[in-house]
Amino acid sequence: METRILSTSEYDIALAGKIISDGGLVAFPTETVYGLGANALNEEAVKNIYEAKGRPSDNPLIVHIAEKEDIYPLVKEITPKAKALMDAFFPGPLTIILEKSEKIGDVVSGGLSTVAIRMPKNEIARSLIQASGCPIAAPSANTSGLPSPTRAKYVIDDMMGKIDGIIDGGDCEFGVESTVITLATETPTLLRPGAVTKEMMEEIIGEIYVSPAVLEGMAENEEAASPGMKYKHYSPHTRVVMVQGTKEQYEEFVNSRKDCCALCFEEDNITIPKITYGRENDELAQAKELFDALRELDELGAKKVYARAPGKNGVAMAVYNRLIRACAFDIIDLTKPYTIGITGPTGAGKGYICQKLKERGFRIIDCDRIAREVTKKGEPVLVELAKAFGDDILADGELNRGVLARKAFATKKQTRLLNSILHPSIKKKCENEAEGLCVLDAPQLFEANMQNDCYRVICVLANEQTRIKRITARDNITEEQAMQRISAQHSDDYFLEKCDYAIYNNGESVDTQIDNILEVIL
Ligand code: TXA
Ligand code: MG
Questions:
Q1: Contact 214, 325 (CB under 8 A)
Q2: Which of its termini does the chain have fewer beta carbons within 10 Å around, N or C?
Q3: Ligand 1 in reach of 37 Cβ (< 6 A)
Q4: Does residue 169 contact residue 122 with C-beta atoms inside 8 Å?
Q5: What distance in angstroms lies between residue 18's CA and the mean position of ligand 2's atoms?
Q6: What pLDDT, in 10s, does the model give residues 302-342?
Q7: Distance (Å, whole) CA 360 – CA 324
Q8: Are 460 and 320 in contact (CB under 8 A)?
Q9: What is the pTM for the complete model shown?
């Protein structure tokens, strides 16, 4: 099919209107993103939209109108809240969902009983709707799954040869799609954030519920309030990972990576290849530049992209919502004190794995060392322990570990008492040492409840023979004693169930296992 590139002249708009009223497809600019329009009342024409985009047929389209009155024939009823929102925000980047009238076919509504209506502010869009003489069904004019087009050039990339015409109307004002709110539910529900923010609408109609899918991924079997939210979206071909953290944390993290690039704010100090999307405090610029930046990423040819996370309120909610989808919900959280927690039973060789991680640039925080430090002569923790377990745990003011162990591990209650004295100060000291990419080496990670302070938790396991050999050599004890110690520890299944990853440390392929895990989590 030949695709005509049209200008915004009166003649070309009239021509585009005629193409649409005759059942054809034309892409056109709006203040949000470019739309791919067809006559909303012509089911055959609307089917072709799904075809051209490669869009799943259960994902309904927005119907665009030129005047507020044009909504009446398309919906069952205008509720008072719908009326109030229309008065406040039409024309503009807001889409309202209401129960549909018989005029709206099942192709447009994706089989739902509701319809999404929007009155764009962009003059070209409205002249086109007027020229066509019908409401225009239009999704964003991108190939399904790719970022929505904010410039005619991207529409041409995706749609050339697949549709009848493309109106080149320059760059879009907002750059993210309209806010979508449904008034067909008991409480108005925000389905997609945009430039008309939750706060702006709440001033007019009161409380608005935010659909959980707006800021989080959806569970596999969850029913989507808005079908569009369940699909991976806006994704460039390059894998994007969102990095949550301060400017400094983000900079340190990405500047130490290889073979990747950064999607960051303008003021970030980045030494690897980068593309920016606005400044940290300029949400409108972030919204305007995000999709453009996502499309440009592929041109850099990096293997992986680390994106600086935007805020979550106001217009930034829209930016965050698009970016987590572009990342397929892959987020690294540097605001947790530790990147990796390492745990596992005695003799499995946690220390060896930590050494390997140190070679790969991680700072290692060794809980055993810190436990020794907080129980040195004169330390407040030691004083407290003596109060709880008796002065005979001390010899010349130094801790006698053997005596303490005998007493503290005699009963579960005593063990809990020991932990309640030891763990808080160990935890505090570890946190003081945490900085940048770091590993918490903690045999008692779960007992000390520190797993939630780690971005990911790895257990180190080894078969029993290997462990016995290591323990007897290390602690100069008999095989029998070593076996006794092992049987007092948690089973492998305990660790496998609680940890994100396991490393089998029996002497082979340890480096490969570590690198594979790091590849996935970083
Ligand atoms: O800014 C925009 O809204 C752009 C421009 C072209 O107007 N259009 C746009 O359309 O973004 P589209 O199809 O890419 O996104 C429409 C979203 C989808 O997530 C869809 O699932 C949802 O709105 N939607 C449409 N009708 C719905 C309905 N009846 N119930 C729930 N969600 C609906
Ligand atoms: Mg879209």
A1: no
A2: N
A3: no
A4: yes
A5: 24
A6: 778 999 999 999 999 999 999 999 988 888 888 888 999 99
A7: 28
A8: no
A9: 0.80
| Sheet order of strands, 94-99 included | 4-6, 165-167, 26-28, 35-39, 136-137, 62-64, 114-118, 94-99, 179-182, 189-192, 209-210
* Residue that the structure tokens 């929007």 belong to: 118
Per-residue pLDDT tens over the stretch 247-259: 999 998 899 888 8
Q: Could you tell me if 448 and 421 are in contact, meaning their C-beta atoms sit under 8 angstroms apart?
A: no
Give the CB-side neighbour count of residue 108, counting CA atoms within 13 A.
28
Maximum separation of any 2 CA atoms in the chain, in Å: 98
174 token code pair: 């907002």
Rounded to an integer, what distance in angstroms lies between the CA atom of residue 515 and that of residue 230? 32
Q: Which ligand has an atom closest to residue 32 CA?
A: 1
- In order, the DSSP letters of 322-350 are HHHHHTTT-EEETTSSEEEEEE--TTS-H
pLDDT interval class at 224 (50, 70, 90): low
Whether 109 lines ligand 1, by a CB cut-off of 6 Å, is yes
Which two tokens mark 29? Answer: 């600019």
Query: Among 96, 226, 229, 288, which residue has the most ligand 1 atoms within 8 Å of its CB, making it the best to mutate?
Result: 226
Residue with the smallest CA separation from ligand 1 atom 17 is 228
Place of tokens 């005629």: 18
The continuous run of DSSP H or E covering 422 comes out as helix 412-433
Find out whether 457 and 340 touch, Cβ atoms under 8 Å: yes
- For 44-81, what is each residue's pLDDT tens digit? 999 999 999 999 999 999 999 999 999 999 999 999 99
